[in-house]
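Filed under: proteins

Residues; backbone shape codes:
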Amino acid sequence: MTRAIDRDNQRFKQIVRGKVRENLKKYITHGEILGKQGREVVSIPVPNIEIPHFRHGKKGNGGVGQGEGDVGQPIGSSEEEGDGEGQAGDQPGQHIREAEMTIDELAEMLAQELHLPHIVPKGQNTIKAIKTKYDSIRQTGPDSLRHFKRTYKRALRRLMASDQYDPKRPIIIPTREDERFRAWTENPLPQANAAVIYIMDVSGSMTDEQKSIVRTEAFWIDTWLKSQYDGVERRYVVHDAVAHEVDEDTFFRTRESGGTRISSAYVKAKSIIERDFPPSDWNIYLFQFSDGDNWGEDNNACIKQLQEFFLPTCNLVCYGQVESPYGSGDYIRELRKITSKWENLVLSEIKDKDGIYESIRTFLGKGK
């Protein structure tokens, strides 16, 4: 039986989630997520919504209908409360509630907000997971798997068949032959897995603001891909004139002052794919972020690498050009020359944080 308070709390949670959905664009573009708990739950700030409740006055102020007073006089203490110093303000404070939501709930909201199609994994799902299911009974096994009901029924049937069962003294002691145990079977199940490789230019022309944009967009990309695949593995590559594989924290904090050779990042990403993610077993996504600066003679080498390896191999190759006061923006013009040949090459220009919203839609809207 559902209690009224449980129904009210459930309704309140729905209201909070509605507030999150209503302001999702703001959370996407400005990254207003207070922190991840593990990898499953995030906290999002929403305007506080109070559940109605009784507030008791000070003890000794009198009961209902007691004491002197006129009709319509407000109930409450006439004494001012509080020990604070300074002048009282006349503006209301802003109350914030942290709404905890699972990654799956966020992904569902993201899909509804951006009208994202579900991804159909490419190729065969050759990675197998073993699912154990207790679905049969056998005569031998460890005590921890003893099936008490089956054992009891077996002993009862034996006693009744041999006319040893006394209804007035119903004592049943199973023997070793009566014991039955749960048994299991192992079924290999296909899994669809995704490998996500993030590449970012960390040369001197990429400022902290641009990196903040990349961090926010990467979070929402991860959120969507995790909802579509059984497993998601991520790798991070940073580069200036030379590329390095790094961990997630280093990816968003590193800044160099050298030149820019994008081809060095492609060489490193290719070695990661060949080492960890055989294309026949994995759905591979490449997300690259840069301000568009690249050493001029390196552009041809980059286009060649993309067309010979990454575009035939990856589900998506996404390039996001983050506008920088120091970047030239030339590289995206080179990529536009080959977009008509490759359906899985997606380009996006991100001028500022407000551009994150449309960039995510552009990258993930193809359902690949």
